[in-house]
Amino acid sequence: MLAVAFPAAAFGTNCYVLAAGPGEECLVVDPGIGVEETLRAVLEEHRLRPAAVLLTHGHLDHVYSVTPVCGGTTAAYVHADDRYRLTDPLASMDPGTVAMLEAQFGQRATWREPETVVEVADRARLELAGLGLEVLHAPGHTEGSAMFALDVVPDGLPAEEGLDRTVVSGDVLFAGSIGRTDLAGGDTAAMQRSLRDVVLPLPDSTLVLTGHGPATTMRRERATNPYLRGLTA
Q1: Is residue 229 in some structural domain?
Q2: How far apart are CA 228 and CA 192, in angstroms?
Q3: By the 8 A CB rule, do 171 and 117 touch?
Q4: Is 71 inside any structural domain?
Q5: Is 69 in contact with 36 (CB distance < 8 Å)?
Q6: What is d(CA 181, CA 188) in angstroms, rounded to the nearest whole number?
Q7: Among 94, 115, 221, 227, which is most buried by a count of CB atoms within 10 Å?
Q8: 181 lies in a domain?
Q9: CATH code: domain of residue 210
Q10: Per the confidence metrics, is the pTM higher than 0.90?
């Protein structure tokens, strides 16, 4: 699997491009703020064509560029419980934060829903762009936070020996941390259940591509992440 990762222009949100190989269709995961130019260059370099956009959740910093990336032909996939957030994610943001972004980028923030949105459910199996994925619903950061699991490890990212699968974790799990639960729709108890029932059962051989910050592995997080200590799968 080919994988390319790069940060958005705001909030350090990781955008991922996943494909079976160069010259193929691809998946774009979490196209955040200001990713369009870099994404265009990545697609041209590897001769890729977006087949779908995957959204780990509906926060603005993960979905802001979804509509221009989708155009009028590519579908956006999101868990059903976060579908409502695609109506207007700007409305849920602090006005001061929106004003800061507008000042940074020199233009007014606008939003338009993607034309085609596919709602996915927990444990759904997806076959997209020649890749097989499983949806893992993991609420807590938002109601519809989801991770996407693949039974393959990418060639284009640094990885440890012995890894045989990949999870795109969004803002559920970070290297050494987890997603915050104090925003609208967040739920600390739900996050604890997701960590216990969804994250901990992942094998140590799992590469974790996080929503912010560096990639990690389940082996490393199980041993060092303070938020996983004391939990039993």
Answers
A1: no
A2: 9
A3: no
A4: yes
A5: yes
A6: 6
A7: 221
A8: yes
A9: 3.60.15.10
A10: yes
